[in-house]
Amino acid sequence: MGRMGVKKVPIFDGEGNLCFVGIRSQILHYRNINRRTRPTVFCGENHIEEFLMGHFSSMFNGLAKSFVMKKGKSSNRCSGREAAEAMAKEAKKNESLLCSSGTVHVDGSNNFASVFSKKGQKGVNQDCCIVWEEFGCQEDMMFCGIFDGHGSWGHFVAKRVRESMPPSLLCNWQETLSQTSLDQDIDVETEKKQHRFNIWKHSYLKTCAAIDQELEQNRKIDSFFSGTTALSIVRQGELIVIANVGDSRAVLATTSEDGILVPVQLTVDFKPNLPQEAERIIERQGRVFCLEDEPGVHRVWLPDEESPGLAMSRAFGDYCVKDYGLISVPEVTQRNITSRDQFVVLATDGVWDVISNQEAVDIVAKTQDRAKSAKRLVECAMHAWKRKRRGIAMDDISAICLFFHSSSSSSLSLGQVNQVGTLK
């Protein structure tokens, strides 16, 4: 496509004047005028609809149309995929998208994310993360994802899924919005919230299916015996949508009526020994059992071979066992954030194998500098691993801590934090 700023797209500014801007300046322009008006985007003589249900930027549609018009023909990919990828590149330049250890905080936003990842003792770090503030140029939206690769190509698979999921989800969400109409008779707020969640759920299911299919056809990455888990959340206003494929975990920290900070586990660890997971695997001729030297660690095996021995029942890739019960279908759930909800922790199993939900919440809450909260949690997990699992190679350990409120308001409502004992 060439340089980002070359393609010119006409938009109306906040005063109703028509102007032509490049993709980069258009995104920055949109962020500036979003609070004042809802801009309408045009491409040629085609009028692109205004905000879909008041949630999605018409700028995205204008960008999508401009990409399709430049191609001159329809594409098998979603018409907005390139536009979403362009947004991701711009977000990275503007430091509102993070793919490594660090922090993300956009001026004026209550969201604050701390990210940290530490290589284990098994070779290359196969964990990776992403945080995208103002997801899709929406000021009230944020995307967080954490991915845990496995197998010799696991780090490549994890990074590929990290790269593909946000723009694909954004594209499918926009497409679903454009095809879905809200019943005008719906005036109950709970029904509206459910309708909004259903759109996200449909978008996630479609996205994960497409990613797994694309991965299987990718000749540059050998994912037959390698794969990755994927845990992600989207925050849209006071709604958080959680999608989980694998055994990473999301834990919410909320204040009880007694003023105690307590954990609420938002996801299921999809292990092969879960009844519904084991039933599916066995029905498809796969096998689930533990090795003699790993009692309690259930793994997925081929019908007639002692491989691959996956410790999770859902994952992207791993096509050697996709016909034997392994799936990449996410569990998608929701939660409406209240003033009691303080932060959410997303972490790979390297944390949860040695740290309890309560310990994780307490560690993060007691870290005075929010920017260091994820690092502190990972370091505590490393110490716990050495103490509890001596002689076992330490796994890669990664965490994202997403805070919902500004530090000043949060400090007044965190409540009493339980003691963590030896993990202080």
Automatic annotation (TrEMBL):
**Catalyses which reaction?**
O-phospho-L-threonyl-[protein] + H2O = L-threonyl-[protein] + phosphate; O-phospho-L-seryl-[protein] + H2O = L-seryl-[protein] + phosphate
EC numbers for this chain: 3.1.3.16
Q: Which SMART domains match?
A: PP2Cc
Q: Which UniProt keywords apply?
A: Hydrolase, Magnesium, Manganese, Metal-binding, Protein phosphatase
One GO molecular function term of this record is: protein serine/threonine phosphatase activity
Which coenzyme or cofactor does it need? Mg(2+); Mn(2+)
User: What domain of life does the native source organism fall in?
Assistant: Eukaryota
A Pfam family hit? PP2C
What CDD domains does this protein's entry cite?
PP2Cc
Which Gene3D superfamilies does the record cross-reference, listed alphabetically?
PPM-type phosphatase domain
Name the PROSITE patterns for this protein. Answer: PPM_2
Q: Which residues form the PPM-type phosphatase domain?
A: 112-404
Q: Name one GO biological process term.
A: negative regulation of growth
State the InterPro entries in the record: PP2C, PPM-type-like_dom_sf, PPM-type_phosphatase-like_dom
Instruction: State the family named in the UniProt similarity comment for this chain.
Output: Belongs to the PP2C family.
Descriptive protein name: protein-serine/threonine phosphatase
Q: What is the lineage of its organism?
A: Eukaryota, Viridiplantae, Streptophyta, Embryophyta, Tracheophyta
